[in-house]
Write a structure and sequence with these properties.
Layout (H helix, E strand, L loop, with lengths): L16 H25 L7 E5 L4 E2 L5 E6 L6 H12 L2 E7 L9 E5 L5 H7 L6 E5 L7 E5 L14 E2 L5 E5 L15
Parallel strand pairs: 3-4, 3-7, 5-6
Antiparallel strand pairs: 1-9, 2-8, 5-7
Length: about 190
Amino acid sequence: MSALQVQPRPHSRIHWRTPITMVTLLAVLVGGAWWGWESLTESNAGPSCVDAKMANDRLTPKQVTVNVYNGGAKAGTASAISKVLTKSGFHVGKIANEPNGNKVTGVELRGTTTNGPEMNLVAGQVKGKLKAVADSRPDHSVDLVVGVGYPGLRDKPVQSIALPKDTTLCLPSIKPTQPIPSGQNPN
């Protein structure tokens, strides 16, 4: 028969790996929360519009940013309109379906004010009566929303809008779509 042997008592070892892992994960969590809060509260975005004195006291299409939205018109209408507006000199920002999913009858223009020069210039591109909506947007861009019954663009659109002498307008800051290679002047 075998004799029973006294088993050695296990040594009391402290397992450090688990607490170190937990402290490291907690530090990452706190650091991520701090970084997220700082990014949210301190925006480093540039100005949404820039005050500019109008040359020859006229507003031209190259100084206006237009977002074209389809609010119920035939599929592809917003894209077709944006191509024509780009050829006319407008800077086209977004081309999409109406952001809120609303359906529009005819054409709706949305901008900073209902009678701003940028709104009037875009209105001069479209046939028929428009519904103008002021939403006090800070960037002075214009949303052109086309819906059911869209009458089309004018054959002879408005080329520019006359402004009072020495007018200064807040124009959208237009950012290039492609990065500027280093060492090249963007102007």
